[in-house]
Amino acid sequence: MTTTNKFKETDIGNIPVEWEDIGLDELIKLRSGKTRPKDLLDHRGVDKKHPVYGGNGIIGYSSETNVDHETVVIGRVGEYCGAVYHLPEKAWITDNAMYIKEFLTDKVTPEFLGLALDVLNLNQFSNKSGQPLINQSIVYSKSVPLPPLPEQKAIAHKLTVIRNAIEQTQAVIEATEALKKSMMKHLFTYGPVPTHQTDQVKL
């Protein structure tokens, strides 16, 4: 990792002087998604396994795809426009989002760029006259820091570990909350749950 006492100011704050600060118009080409697929389901099925992304993440699953490469999805309209999702698999992108159709350089990895865009917080630049909107011109006008590829991979790995830990913790919280609600309902309708049953519950 870079170790330096010298920094320069960028759109996301100070970065090491050794890193590039490069405009997104030099890094990527964007494309808007299409209308929702006709066979959209709210859960993943055997024949409908591809995620469908809207302006605020996955909205369902389909047998169809309109993107077949690793990319980054950006929410285009709505309150959460500018939300960023790294996409490692085939998917369908709706017209409430846009995605990176092409990387113009091999100096950046999709995963790192997704994290950099997340830190950039594109939502703050949205057009808020009416329905909030992020368009391609707004994205192209911004820049992101670009460390060497080995550092990009190291940064992405560390942040992915943290993100996975957060998701696992959130899953435990949600499971605990569901257990609490179930026990409350039982207690208020059937009386106390037998001790041997609660002792067997493991989170």
TrEMBL record:
Alphabetic keyword roster: DNA-binding, Endonuclease, Hydrolase, Nuclease, Restriction system
GO molecular function list: endonuclease activity; hydrolase activity
UniProt keyword annotation of Nuclease present: yes
InterPro entries the record matches: Restrct_endonuc_typeI_TRD (IPR000055), Restrct_endonuc_typeI_TRD_sf (IPR044946), Type-I_RS_S_subunit (IPR052021)
Domain Type I restriction modification DNA specificity: 16-169
Keyword Methyltransferase: no
Enzyme Commission numbers on file: 3.1.21.-
SUPFAM superfamilies listed in its UniProt record: DNA methylase specificity domain (SSF116734)
EC top class, as a word: hydrolase
Pfam families in the record: Methylase_S (PF01420)
Family: Belongs to the type-I restriction system S methylase family.
Protein name: Restriction endonuclease subunit S
Organism: Gracilimonas halophila
